[in-house]
Amino acid sequence: MALHPTLWRTCRVLAGPTRLRLLRRVIARPGLTVQQLADAQDIGKSRASQELRRLQSRGLIQARRKSARVAYHPVPDPLVATAKPLLEAMKTAFASTAPRQDRLAIGSAVALAYPRRQDIVRHLLDAPASTADLAARLRIPRISTLRHLHALRDLDLARNVRGLWHFTPTPHPLTRCLIRLLQQEPAPPPG
């Protein structure tokens, strides 16, 4: 069965700290079972299984059955176009940063976990814009636009300079990958 996950829903999965820790562990030690992963993260087997299924539904890991046990591997689903670049970005990030720095990855994922925020970022990638201009282009209330802009600002992905909002990406590998994927995705119609 082909998976067609949207980028914003994939961001919501990557925004979960427990899922990110599990993904980090699967990448570091491929072939661990659900029980081994649960024990390593000090969570229940049921919760670990549920979180791993969410990562699998985004095409980021694959489960392989070994008799009665299921082991997880960091293998992208070839039917999910975003899986391979996202998994590569996470491998790069995990290889170069300590687990305590995963908050940068979580921040990037949270920032783009909403379709409207993705639309705002697309516009800001083209050129800086005012809140009113963005609201008009996106056909959403100014207050909603401002709320999303403030969230992007709080996550260090946007800043306001003299009334114009600018996109300010972090150098994190996941942020760079998400922006590339966002630019490749066709923009939805406004409204």
CATH architectural grouping of the largest domain: Orthogonal Bundle
Shape: elongated
Taken together, the total number of domains comes to: 2
Name the CATH superfamily assignment of the largest domain: Winged helix-like DNA-binding domain superfamily/Winged helix DNA-binding domain
How much helix is in the residues? 55-70%
CATH topology of the largest domain: Arc Repressor Mutant, subunit A
Order of helices and strands: HHEHHEEHHHHHEEH
Which CATH class of the largest domain is shown? Mainly Alpha
Gyration radius over CA: 18 Å
| Major β-sheet annotation | 3 strands, antiparallel
> How many E strands?
5
How far is the N terminus from the C terminus? 32 Å
Q: Strand order, biggest sheet? A: 1-3-2
Strand pairing plus helix content: what structural class?
Answer: mainly alpha
The total of helices stands at 10
In terms of topology, how is this protein built?
Layout: H1 7-14, H2 17-28, E1 32-33, H3 34-41, H4 45-57, E2 62-66, E3 69-73, H5 83-96, H6 102-111, H7 115-126, H8 131-138, H9 142-154, E4 158-161, E5 164-167, H10 173-184
Antiparallel strand pairs: 1-3, 2-3, 4-5
Helix pairs in contact: 1-6, 2-3, 2-4, 3-4, 5-10, 8-9
How would you describe what is shown here?
The structure is a single chain. With 191 residues, the chain is mainly alpha-helical. It has two domains: 7-87, Arc Repressor Mutant, subunit A (Orthogonal Bundle), CATH 1.10.10; 104-184, Arc Repressor Mutant, subunit A, CATH 1.10.10.10. 58% of the residues lie in helices and 10% in strands. It is built from ten helices and five strands; from the N terminus they run ααβααββαααααββα. The longest helix is centred in the middle third of the chain and has 14 residues, at 83-96. The radius of gyration is 18 Å and the shape is elongated. The model has no long low-confidence stretch (mean pLDDT 92).
